[in-house]
Write a structure and sequence with these properties.
Length: about 100
């Protein structure tokens, strides 16, 4: 059963999320599909055990990643390249400032 969710299809045990398809145990997510155990993510596809990330495809056990595909057990990556935590946070804050 999902709580505080909208626009879901075949999604179970998710919470506070919007526009998910075929997701399982997701929380604070937006526009994700075919993923499980993701937290605070948006635009994630075919991924699992990821958190605080955006625009991932086929990633597993990743956190604080942006625009990556096929990564496993990584953190602070942008477009599949490794960055320091400081560089990553600066990039994300610049991206967010242009969107808002």
């Amino acid at each position: 059963r999902s709580e505080n969710c909208a626009y879901m299809y075949d999604t179970f045990y998710s919470k506070d999320s919007y526009d998910l398809t075929y997701c399982f145990k997701s929380e604070l997510c937006y526009q994700c599909s075919d993923s499980s155990k993701i937290y605070n993510c948006d635009s994630i596809d075919w991924s699992s055990n990821c958190y605080d990330s955006s625009y991932l495809y086929d990633c597993s056990d990743c956190h604080n990643c942006f625009g990556c595909a096929g990564l496993k057990h990584k953190k602070f990556c942008i477009l599949n390249r490794q960055y320091s935590e400081e560089e990553y946070r600066k990039f994300v804050s610049e991206i967010k400032s242009t969107v808002h």
